[in-house]
Amino acid sequence: MSTIIALAPDADRDPTAAELDAIAAEETLISAEVDLLDVQIALLDCTLSEMDQRRLRRARSRVLAERLALANRTVGRGVAA
Description:
Elements: H1 17-25, H2 27-42, H3 50-76
């Protein structure tokens, strides 16, 4: 019988400088995604008004814009997105 070894990150270690830089680079995208999730949760059980639809479109657009900006920044540094 073979042994299966789980490759899980070590929970006791601190993040490396590279990992912290990656998180910092994605901070605006993470914020935009959280805002979109907040809007989606707020609109779960209601009929969408024109204002609600506009709010949802705006949040989705912000996420897409942040994803594009992040992709452009990473490609500009020579790192594949």
